[in-house]
């Protein structure tokens, strides 16, 4: 009989994670892999970079960055344009990222709800979740109007300057909210951005009371967004759904009408998740 059969705890460890899994100190990190991921993430945010530029902006030597890029290229994660002498994110990165979306049925279940929301309001419908203290947009159904908001899947946005972000923050208890905002700078993207913690907390209180959030040109001048939280079977806010569009179409007088449509969409999607 295997020795692990005599010790259930050892068997559980063998199938799960190591005893020191929570230890994130230097001894448990692979420095070369960490440097490679830094380059990879930087390139994903700043497409089309020359080798020397990448090295300078990531603070690594050109030789090191070149070895990283060639390795990632071999896996299809980055691509090199020989004509322009520039490096870009590769198609394999999209494939791997798409697998994240398949971890949950949220995106699949949200599509018909988002399409109805877009058709009812005439504005772009968005779906976002919280990841790493930011809003990660995971799906979008675009309006056919010529002027429209564009948040492709994978886009990250600061929570304090996002309709979905504020809708999710408003549903957090005090302890979680403090952790979410700890060390975060409330950056001013426009003159309308909320940069004061007390003002943000006051806005979150109003959002929770009325059931929807408004991004009133807080991220981009000329764009307004209305969002509501989506709940799961445990009544936890797991996502946010919104409509966004130019202020010429999403005016102050339209907020009441649009917020009703967004809240209904959020309730419908929550129901499919068991809420």
UniProtKB/TrEMBL annotation:
Which terms does the record give in the GO molecular function aspect?
A: DNA binding; DNA-binding transcription factor activity
Alphabetical UniProt keywords = DNA-binding, Plasmid, Transcription, Transcription regulation
Give the highest taxon in the source lineage: Bacteria
Q: Which PROSITE patterns match?
A: HTH_ICLR, ICLR_ED
Bias class Basic and acidic residues marks the residues at 10-23
What are the start and end residues of every segment in region (Disordered)?
A: 1-27
BP terms from Gene Ontology: negative regulation of DNA-templated transcription
Which residues span the membrane? none
Could you tell me which SMART domains the record lists for this protein? HTH_ICLR
Task: Specify the protein name.
Answer: Acetate operon repressor
Organism of origin is Pseudosulfitobacter pseudonitzschiae
Name of the gene encoding the protein in the UniProt record? iclR
């Amino acid at each position: 009989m295997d020795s692990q059969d005599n010790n259930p705890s050892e068997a559980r460890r063998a199938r799960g994670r190591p005893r020191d899994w929570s230890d994130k100190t230097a001894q448990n990190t692979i420095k070369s892999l960490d440097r490679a991921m830094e380059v990879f993430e930087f390139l994903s945010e700043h497409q089309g970079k020359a080798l020397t530029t990448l090295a300078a902006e990531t603070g690594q030597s050109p030789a090191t960055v070149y070895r990283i890029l060639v390795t990632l290229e071999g896996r299809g994660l980055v691509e090199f344009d020989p004509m322009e002498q520039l490096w870009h994110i590769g198609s394999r990165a999209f494939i791997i990222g798409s697998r994240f979306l398949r971890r949950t049925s949220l995106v699949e279940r949200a599509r018909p709800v988002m399409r109805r929301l877009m058709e009812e309001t005439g504005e772009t419908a968005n779906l976002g979740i919280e990841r790493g203290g930011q809003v990660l947009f995971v799906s979008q159904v675009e309006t056919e109007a010529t002027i429209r908001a564009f948040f492709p899947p994978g886009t990250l946005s600061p929570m304090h300057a996002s309709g979905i972000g504020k809708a999710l923050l408003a549903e957090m208890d005090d302890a979680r909210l403090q952790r979410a905002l700890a060390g975060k700078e409330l950056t001013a993207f426009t003159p309308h951005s909320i940069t004061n913690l007390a003002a943000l907390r006051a806005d979150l209180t109003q959002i929770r009371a009325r059931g929807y959030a408004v991004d009133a040109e807080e991220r981009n001048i000329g764009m307004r967004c209305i969002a509501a939280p989506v709940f799961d079977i445990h009544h936890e806010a797991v996502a946010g759904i919104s409509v966004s569009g130019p202020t010429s179409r999403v005016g102050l007088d339209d907020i009441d009408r649009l917020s009703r449509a967004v809240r209904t969409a959020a309730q419908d999607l929550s129901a499919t998740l068991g809420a």
